[in-house]
Design brief:
DNA-binding; 278 residues; six-stranded antiparallel sheet; two-stranded antiparallel ribbon
DNA sequence: TCCCAGGCAAGGC
DNA sequence: GCCTTGCATGGG
């Protein structure tokens, strides 16, 4: 449901709505003005504008963004399946029917979600923006997300200065570990050989990375759907719709057991839906 | 003033 | 091992 033209990537698919994709909480570096969304990924950029009966993705990196937006996956099939599970999921999918799970950069996702801990989305975006302006390379599109060597070159006080709060030491220490990772233990390639549960365990060895952040990185950067990030909103969802006597620490495992390989998708529809109700 | 936000690390059992 | 507590910051 997409094709490359001289103007960009033309998407005609009712399972592609930039508002749902970018505002559902999976990504932090995007802009919106005059009906046009802009999205950054590391040093790359794309604009999404309404075009005829669909959207046009304008970018200098079409191949990259075809993967990034997961355009080769049939989301109609996914939404049909999930809608059939229960009335709640039918509603959630209807509300967020244009969601697609982005394939994001590992380093950017990791640092973004370390910042996200016990934080709100507005402030997460501000901190990441200050991080890019201070340490990212300036491109023709704006500031890139910093490289690992840039992230590892600054002291803890830098992270304090961009407003990271008590996450400052976690950002600093994780940058140090990754930049001193001679064996490539935490390289994308090595981590990607692990199954999702082993990957989560491994990521939890980094500072500022616990169960929830590791699940997010595994879902959004490694494209694994057999995971279920549980944050304060999902806890509300659980107690409201799926309550079954589990302690908070067991909710993740329970929901994965319920939704299997669709867990990652289900999580995102529910998260977006729950937040829409304030 | 208190509560909350895409939680986590450290310390006490 | 599990449970509790403290934590920077800004908005409602």
């Amino acid at each position: 449901m997409f094709k490359q033209t001289k103007d960009g990537i033309l998407v005609t698919d009712n399972r592609f709505r930039p508002k749902d994709i970018l505002e559902c909480g999976q990504v932090f570096r995007y802009t919106f003005s005059n009906g046009v969304y802009g999205v950054y990924s590391v040093d790359k950029f794309a604009q999404i504008l309404p075009f005829e009966d669909g959207y046009l993705i304008k970018t200098d990196f079409p191949d990259y963004f075809i993967e990034y937006f997961d355009l080769k996956t049939d989301y109609e099939k996914i939404t049909d399946e999930i809608s059939s599970y229960s009335p709640i999921l039918k509603n959630a999918v209807e509300y967020g029917q244009g969601i697609r799970i982005l394939k994001q950069d590992y380093l950017e996702t990791l640092f973004s979600f370390i910042i996200s801990a016990n934080n709100n989305i507005k402030r997460i975006q501000l901190i990441i923006e200050r991080l890019c302006v201070a340490l990212g390379e300036k491109t023709k599109y704006g500031y890139a997300f910093p490289t690992l060597s840039a992230l590892a070159s600054v002291p803890v006080s830098f992270y304090t200065s961009i407003g990271a709060g008590y996450r400052d030491v976690n950002l600093y220490r994780t940058a140090q570990i990754l930049s001193n990772d001679e064996k490539g233990e935490f390289s994308y390639q090595n981590l990607n050989t692990l199954n999702s549960s082993a990957l989560i365990t491994k990521l939890c060895r980094l500072y500022g990375v616990g169960e929830k952040v590791a699940n997010c990185v595994t879902l959004f950067a490694f494209s694994r759907k057999d995971v279920f990030p549980v944050d304060t909103w999902i806890k509300k969802v659980y107690h409201e719709y799926f309550e079954n006597g589990h302690a908070d620490k067991d909710i993740c495992k329970y929901l994965i057991q319920l939704f299997g390989d669709y867990s990652g998708y289900v999580q995102q529809y529910l998260f977006y839906y729950q937040r829409s109700k304030f």
